[in-house]
Hints:
Blueprint: H1 5-15, H2 22-43, H3 50-57, H4 67-88, H5 95-105, H6 134-149, H7 157-171, H8 178-192, H9 205-218, H10 222-235, H11 237-243
Amino acid sequence: MRSFSMLDALKAKLDTYRPLDAQIVKNLHESLVLQWTYHSNAIEGNTLTLKETKVALEGITIGGKTIREHFEAINHRDAIFLVEDLVTKQQPLDEWTIKSLHQLVLKNIDTENAGSYRRVNVLISGAEHRPPQAIQVAEQMTAFVDWYNQSAQALHPIERAARVHGEFVKIHPFVDGNGRTARLLMNLELMKAGFPATVIEVDQRLAYYQSLDKAHCTGDYDDFIKLVAQATEKSFAPYWWALGIEDNLKD
Length: 251
């Protein structure tokens, strides 16, 4: 079994500072929502910059940008709020959770397909992996949830979160919005286990796609799990900065 001892130690260190001051929590949360929304949407081709995303989340329309891009920012923020609510309730992964998150991701963008499994076959541009045919999606999603409730529970939360992301997007159950939903589900797992939400950054897009495609085509998740673990390690840095302590395991 992989060793995630350093990440466990970082989590244990952060836990010693909990509960965090309310103002620190507020500042960290605002930054997280912005960063997570910007990067997750940018990976999928949204052209809003970080600053434009911030403005869009404040309800201001940006000239030259599509209505869809504005909705993608607002919807993603609302989906994060749902994830946080589900974390509070320690919501297990099930098809209701998946469809509810996806419904928010595509709200006001594609009402017909929001929260509904695809009824057409799809190809993933640039990937070798070919998702299952539409007729197989419902059955594979049931099997995915069964796997989560059984085998996945024995995995370390970092590996479980990475594999939840990977196995979900391998099925590609929706016509659109699979990547954003996968990253929301990944963070749902991490946050339920007490780890900070993790942001896959847009400049990691090539390594991200390559490691996912490798996992889907060969079953070898090592590169993708490593990418998620590195992103998780980086997600502790804002806490250390806010707390004014060293960014390492030394007190």
